[in-house]
Amino acid sequence: MSQYGRAAVTPAAGSMVVFVGVAVAGAFIVAQGLTNASFTYTMGAVAALLLFALAFVRTDFGIYVVIFSMLLSPQFGNKGAGVGAGRGITFRTEDFVLLVIGLSWLAKTAVNKELNLIARTPLNWPILLYVATTLAATLLGSLTGTINSWSGYFHVLKYVEYFVIYYMAVNNLRDREHGWRLVGAAFITAAIVSVIGLAQVPSGERVSAPFEGEIGEPNTFGGYLLFMMAIAAGIAFETENTRRRAQCLILLGVMAVPFFFTLSRASYLGLIPAFLVIARLSTRRRLVVGLVLLGLVSSPVLIFVAPKSVKDRVTYTFKEEKGSDTVRLGKVAFDPSTSARLLSFKSALTGFVQRPIFGWGVTGFGFMDAQYARVLAETGIVGLAAFLWLMWAVGRHALDVYATRGDPDERGLVLGFLAGFAGLLVHAFGSNTFIIVRIMEPFWLITGIVMMIPALEAKERAAAAAAAQFTLAPPKKERSGVRR
Q1: What average pLDDT does this structure show over 28-36?
Q2: What's residue 197's pLDDT?
Q3: Where are the alpha helices (DSSP H) in 262-370?
Q4: Whole-number pLDDT of residue 418
Q5: Positive/negative CA dihedral, 428, 430, 433, 439
Q6: Which of residues 71 and 219 earns the better pLDDT score?
Q7: Closest CA to 135 of 163, 154, 161, 162
Q8: How far apart are the first and last CA of the chain?
């Protein structure tokens, strides 16, 4: 192909074309919207175009918007029917923010051929297989009649949305300092929603995240706080920076109060593996073990001083209610909520026997608030294997990153991530943890940062080596005289 057959549009010229297109589209939308649509929809469309343009120029801006909208954006759609809750479809502001930023990134990669659409990471194949499996299972469910609407495909699209956040992080991280700024933005978001949670405590109701609609989701908020608390704790244990340790401990205290008042028993259980991971991997193991022993010794006192609502919620686990399905283990009976989760595993096994390979498709089986049971019933043994491979890949590569960390702050970040990941794996026995938007968005953001740390470090070392070589190289002497 001749040079004239290649793309003749330079990045600068391509950017100008994009901006002219955005300006024309904006003018058209305003003109049409003010005459044929409501003012709200018109301003929404203009805001989307503005966000598109800003994210095109500075992708960082779009990422920060996504981070702050993860827990601070309102939802609309079926009431109380989030991805992790029921069969209905719920949309949030960040869904459209992600769509706009995704389109902006596509436009940017089309204009600048040097940018990669999808970066090469250790999780690419597990993610691809998991998405392909859920899509195939849903397609088969639609063909065989177990799924009678587009709901399953919308749920799969929501799953893909989480991986968009992962690739937004890995594609746009410039250096490790940039990664820390994104972590800082996530911590600021956690602090804001925790303060809002603290304001709910006096009401006596279970604490949930803001903008949850009429029906809150305390279990979701508990899982989110569990993950963010683990990261703050990991950094606090490992860092040698006194100021950073103090900041993480303060944030940990702010998050702990609303966490316990979510009354989420799955989140309480998640604390155990999270703390055990920190105790096992931390370089300050003696301190962690000492805290564990102190907690065991003082546990009777802690139980005595614990808020009544927390104690009642824990003891309610073993209270049977007449007229409801009850699971018994020997003489121990469980409450309806716990029984429903235990029965969901039995139901999942029944559905698995009927459709063992690809399951019933996403949303094709009865609702179950238990991640592993739901994956088995909806996507069969193939889907469960793909999901477990993805989880194993995340944990294995994070451990590899942790083993090579020399910087205490980075070691603390990865340690906290591993602890939070272990906590979410247990949390998933009593919730659809890995398909809940408000848990998975921050999870995949931090996952992207953790996975890119070695590559960013290698990039910085190569740049430093090149700079040193340039500095040490003696300048070439110019020959005197005139050529003949």
Answers
A1: 45
A2: 92
A3: 265-281, 285-297, 299-305, 308-315, 336-354
A4: 97
A5: negative
A6: 219
A7: 154
A8: 43
Is 277 a residue whose pLDDT tops 70? Answer: yes
- Cα 477 from Cα 367, distance rounded (Å): 78
Token pair 């083993």 is found at 403
Sign, CA dihedral 119-131-185-273, equals negative
Do residues 401 and 343 touch, judged by C-beta distance below 8 A? Answer: no
Could you tell me the two tokens for 395? 């944990």
Euclidean distance between CA atoms 64 and 245, whole angstroms: 24
* Rounded distance between C-alpha atoms, residue 264 and residue 314, angstroms: 9
Closest CA to 410 of 177, 219, 207: 177
C-alpha–C-alpha distance, residues 78 and 246, integer Å = 42
Spatial separation of the C-alpha atoms in residues 362 and 380, rounded to whole Å: 10
Model pLDDT, residue 32: 46
Pairing of strands 75-77, 328-329: unpaired
Helix 11-36 to helix 39-57 angle (10° resolution) is 170
CA 230 from centroid of its chain's CA atoms? 14
Backbone angles phi, psi at 90, to 5 degrees: -120, 130
Burial 383-415 (b: 16+ CB within 10 A, else e): bbebbeebbebbeebbeebbeebeebbbbbbbb
Say how far apart CA 180 and CA 198 lie, in whole Å.
26
- Rg for the chain, CA atoms, rounded: 26
pLDDT in tens, 367-383: 788 899 999 999 999 99
Distance between CA atoms of residues 115 and 124, nearest Å = 17
Q: Residue 306's pLDDT band (boundaries 50, 70, 90)?
A: low
Residue 174, helix vs strand vs coil: coil
In this prediction the pTM is 0.83
Residues contacting 27, CB < 8 A, separation 6+? none
Q: Which residue has the higher pLDDT, 59 or 239?
A: 239
Question: Which pLDDT value is given to residue 379?
Answer: 94
Q: Are residues 66 and 164 in contact, defined by beta-carbon separation less than 8 angstroms?
A: no
Which residue is it, tokens 């716990």? 338
Q: What's the pLDDT at 437?
A: 83
What is the residue extent of each domain of the chain?
Answer: 58-292+305-460
∠ Cα 432 67 128 (to 5°):
55
Residue type at 285 in one-letter notation: R
Place of tokens 């709910």: 200
Q: Which of 28-37, 68-77, 332-341, 459-468 has the lowest mean pLDDT?
A: 28-37
- Which of these, 460, 420, 464, lies nearest to 439 by C-alpha position? 420
Task: Quote the pLDDT of residue 302.
Answer: 61
Residues making up the chain, counted from first to last: 484
pLDDT in the model for residue 204: 80
